[in-house]
């Protein structure tokens, strides 16, 4: 999937030929505890992620008091309550940000957060010098927010869950019209967990072709299969939800990867580039000796006397591959032996007229 450009987030370059930029999505899995948030930073760094991402909001900035929980939230939490009440417990207090960012610097991992609370959240993250803005799928159609954020000139990562191609086009167009072309579009299916049959990774390629932007994948499936396939298809960015423990209380824990699983997923994503290798078709260095052993040559199958002609009854094609190549077998048939040749001998050019 050809990239149209490269984009830098902090010191990391994203684009064709660059390693996949992996975002470990901590989201709201800190459960309102600083100690948990810091342990999430540590786990993301230890797993090899490039960035760890949280969510910035105050509940009343996100939803009205009448807003209902999504079905997956009700299922994962095990009870029904208002969305605002649920979100209130998942806010990341402003006092947490400095120690979290400090821990990120110590662990050499990039701090990101989704401005889930709208304009105020964007301003707050801007005051913290966040290196990019990542917008959740719920804000893809929030064009006023995208336009406002684009003016800061930072990379804009757009989640596209629940979206039509037209809605993605409008969001990308809005950001570009505001003078910002540092756009990364993430294909996504907004379901926690998302069944493999709804991952629809081919849509990622469609958006890359249609909009000429870097594309990636925000994964909500269980396990490594979908993000690894996304990497093989050319995803420049992959985002994966993670938690310290799937059994913790909260809407996203059960659909998130635990630290060891996250580490393994990232390892497999990194291996994709190694496995894809070069587009050149040629023997690997390790194959060069094997060629001699595994390939075949023209050989005698019985003693041949001087003056005798080579026929299908006295020469065949066998290993090793250090003699005359099989493609020359038809040309050797009918030639005359210049000397006596023993059985099971690789034929050489000087052996025949």
Order of helices and strands: EEEHEHHHHEHEHEHEHEHEHHEEH
Q: How much strand content do the residues show?
A: 15-25%
Largest sheet: 8 strands, parallel
- Overall geometry: elongated
Task: Output the strand order for the largest sheet.
Answer: 5-4-3-10-9-8-7-6
Total beta-strand segments? 12
- In the CATH hierarchy, what is the superfamily of the largest domain? Aldolase class I
Q: What is the count of helical runs?
A: 13
Please give the structural blueprint:
Layout: E1 7-9, E2 12-14, E3 21-27, H1 34-47, E4 51-56, H2 59-62, H3 71-77, H4 83-88, H5 94-107, E5 110-115, H6 119-127, E6 133-135, H7 143-150, E7 156-159, H8 165-177, E8 183-188, H9 202-211, E9 214-219, H10 225-233, E10 237-241, H11 259-276, H12 288-294, E11 297-300, E12 315-318, H13 329-332
Helix pairs in contact: 1-5, 1-11, 7-8, 10-11
Short synopsis of the structure:
This protein is an alpha/beta fold and 353 residues long. Helix content is 35%, strand content 16%.
Fold and architecture overview:
The protein is an alpha/beta fold and 353 residues long. The chain has helices spanning 34-47, 59-62, 71-77, 83-88, 94-107, 119-127, 143-150, 165-177, 202-211, 225-233, 259-276, 288-294, 329-332; strands spanning 7-9, 12-14, 21-27, 51-56, 110-115, 133-135, 156-159, 183-188, 214-219, 237-241, 297-300, 315-318. The chain has two domains: 12-276, Alpha-Beta Barrel (TIM Barrel); 285-351, Type Iii Antifreeze Protein Isoform Hplc 12. Helix 1 packs parallel to helix 5 (94-107), helix 1 packs parallel to helix 11 and helix 10 packs parallel to helix 11. The radius of gyration is 30 Å and the shape is elongated. The mean pLDDT is 93.
């Amino acid at each position: 999937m050809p990239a149209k450009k490269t984009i830098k987030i902090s010191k990391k370059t994203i684009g064709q030929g660059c390693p996949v930029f992996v975002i470990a999505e901590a989201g709201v899995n800190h459960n309102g505890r600083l100690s948990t948030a810091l342990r999430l930073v540590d786990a993301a760094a230890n797993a090899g992620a490039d960035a760890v991402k949280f969510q910035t909001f105050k509940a009343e900035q996100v939803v009205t008091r009448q807003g209902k929980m999504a079905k997956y939230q009700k299922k994962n939490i095990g009870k029904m309550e208002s969305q605002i009440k649920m979100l209130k417990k998942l806010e990341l207090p402003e006092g947490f940000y400095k120690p979290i960012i400090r821990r990120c610097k110590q662990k050499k991992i990039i701090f990101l957060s989704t401005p889930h609370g709208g304009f105020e959240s964007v301003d707050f993250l801007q005051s913290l010098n966040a290196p990019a803005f990542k917008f959740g799928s719920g804000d893809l159609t929030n064009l006023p927010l995208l336009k406002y954020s684009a003016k800061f000139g930072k990379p804009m990562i757009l989640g596209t869950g629940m979206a039509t191609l037209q809605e993605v086009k409008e969001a990308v167009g809005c950001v570009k019209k505001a003078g910002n072309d540092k756009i990364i579009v993430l294909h996504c299916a907004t379901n926690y967990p998302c069944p493999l049959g709804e991952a629809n990774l081919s849509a990622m390629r469609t958006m890359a072709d249609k909009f000429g932007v870097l594309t990636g994948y925000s994964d909500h499936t269980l396990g490594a299969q979908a993000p690894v396939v996304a990497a093989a298809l050319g995803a420049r960015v992959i985002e994966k939800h993670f938690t310290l423990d799937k059994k913790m209380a909260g809407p996203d824990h059960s659909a998130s990867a635990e630290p060891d699983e996250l580490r393994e997923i990232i390892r497999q994503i990194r291996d994709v580039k190694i496995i894809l290798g070069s587009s050149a078709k040629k023997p690997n260095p390790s194959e060069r000796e094997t060629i001699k052993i595994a390939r075949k040559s023209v050989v005698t199958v019985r003693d041949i006397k001087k003056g005798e002609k080579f026929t299908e009854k006295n020469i065949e094609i066998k290993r090793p591959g250090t003699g005359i190549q099989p493609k020359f077998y038809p040309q050797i048939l009918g030639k005359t032996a210049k000397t006596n040749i023993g059985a099971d001998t690789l034929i050489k050019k000087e052996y025949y007229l």
